[in-house]
Amino acid sequence: MTIPFVITIAVLLGLLFLLIREIRRSPGPLKWGKRSVWKKRLRIALVLLLLMVVCVGIWSVLIEPNRLVIHAETIQIDEWPKELNGLHIAVISDIHTGGPFIDQE
């Protein structure tokens, strides 16, 4: 996991530096052959969009899968039918934890 993490951090930093460079760059007057202001804004919007996509990708691939908690429990039931041996049941709980409308009560 360390190599993908280092690669994603490098890409993220590269996009941040590109964004800072685009924001600080002056379009200059048209007689100098510089691009107009709307093209600069378009480049900044594109870099911001790429930055958001990379951040969502980092979150969904590197961070969120590690937050999953799996707790295995074996339950013994008397008179369990032999046809159902090896049956696995999954339970999902507390999916609303941390919501703004959920409190201690």
Account of the protein in words:
The protein has 105 residues and is an all-alpha fold. Helix content is 48%, strand content 0%. The protein is built from two helices and no strands. Helix 1 (2-24) runs antiparallel to helix 2 (37-63).
Summarize the helices and strands and which ones pair or pack.
Blueprint lengths: L1 H23 L12 H27 L42
Helix pairs in contact: 1-2
Average pLDDT works out at: 76
Q: Please bin the fraction of helical residues.
A: 40-55%
Shape: elongated
How much of the sequence lies in strands comes to under 5%
Q: Could you tell me the radius of gyration in angstroms?
A: 25 Å
User: How would a crystallographer describe the biggest sheet?
Assistant: none
Structural class from helices and strands?
mainly alpha
The tally of helices reads 2
Distance separating the two termini: 39 Å
Q: Tell me the number of strands.
A: 0
- The SSE order reads HH
Low-confidence stretches: none
Describe the structure concisely.
With 105 residues, the chain is mostly helical.
